[in-house]
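Batch manifest line 304
LIGAND: cobalamin
JOB: complex structure
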Amino acid sequence: MDELSIAIKRQAYALGFDACGIASVQAEADDGFDAWLDAGFHADMAWMERTRDIRQQVSLKVPGAQSVVVLAKYYYRADAVPAPDAPRIARYAWSRDYHRALAKPLKQLAAHIAELCPGAQQYASTDSGPVRERVWAARAGLGWNGRNGLLIHPEFGSWCFLATIITTAKLTPDTPIPERCGSCCACIEACPTDAIIADRTVDSRRCISYHTIENRGEIPTEIAERTSGWIFGCDICQEVCPWNNIPRENAGIEIRAEFASLDPDALADISDEAFRRFFSGTPVMRAKREGICRNAGIFLRNHK
Ligand code: B12
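JOB STATUS: finished
ARTIFACT:
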């Protein structure tokens, strides 16, 4: 590996990322993404459709892109467990919104690359950029895309956020690792709404995570009846994954202990002000007050 790639990785770890890999940009062939969109699996997430081409060709985002630096930040905390029968919030949302938490170290790493490679152009993003993070993470050797559709790291499973820096700097790529799901279908079998319909394909229209976070309208009855206690996101396909069996702890992440014992009655009727006070700074804000009220109402109906 060249000195430059080593220096970037060293800095990534120094900034608090748990894993860093590099992929080189080559002509990107369609791997099924078009078919996924054409089948309508993105539900109402029109922003995916709008950025279809850029998502499949990073050089449309950064002309002359040569490499993608992929970062992972581990977020598992064993004590992020709700009380029995309490409404459930996905694990990633128990702490400070990662879009914000990762913004600073990501910016610092991009600045470091700019310093090391004068003249190089960088584009850094996590989640909200038009970059297919899991695809790049797999290409950069961070893990493989599991049957549940998530990037599984061989050491810390899928409990990680991903972020990328597209750069015009030419770096040494890492070697992808072969997929290790084997014949395991635990995630497919456990999904209460049958959202994982084929190898590594998730139909958002059936996914509890989509409906409780992104859907701004009514949740179809068939899905609502099977939300299984989740009022924001869903972790079922991760909880049953054998690669998540012995998760490493990330004691450095602060979690909201009060998320363990949410009161569904109070949430179903929460005021704007109380919603902001309670959830401010966490990813739950994404669902908006109306979404959480709707989801808590569904929770109450399912637990009558
Ligand atoms: C849209 C989106 C969603 C949608 C759609 C989910 C989905 N499976 O695509 C919804 C709202 C449902 C969702 C839910 C969740 N999400 Co989300 N989501 C995204 C987002 C913004 C885009 C993903 C996307 O492009 N999907 C479309 C699919 C079809 O495209 P793709 O990822 O490129 O997948 C292709 C490749 O994987 C390829 N492929 C896979 N294997 C192989 C093998 C070979 C050989 C080849 C050639 C190709 C190939 O085929 C797929 C089809 O083209 C990303 C962030 C980002 N910018 O990438 C986060 C992201 C994927 N989500 C994330 C998380 C944490 C979640 C949830 C766990 C949250 C929760 N607890 O509720 C759930 C998990 C649901 C699930 N099982 O997928 C993390 C995942 C981290 C990880 N370890 O993988 C991401 C990366 C955000 C982040 N920055 O951390 N999400």
